[in-house]
Amino acid sequence: MSTFLELGVRQDFIKALGELGIKNPTEIQEISIPILLHSKTDLIGLAQTGTGKTAAFGLPLLHLIDASRPEIQALILAPTRELVQQIKKQLFKYTKYGDSKIYCEGIYGGEKIEKQINSLKRTTHIVVATPGRLLDLIERGEINIKNISTLVLDEADEMLSMGFKQDLNRILKYTNGTRNTWLFSATMPEEIKRII
Question: What is the pTM of this model?
Answer without folding.
Answer: 0.94
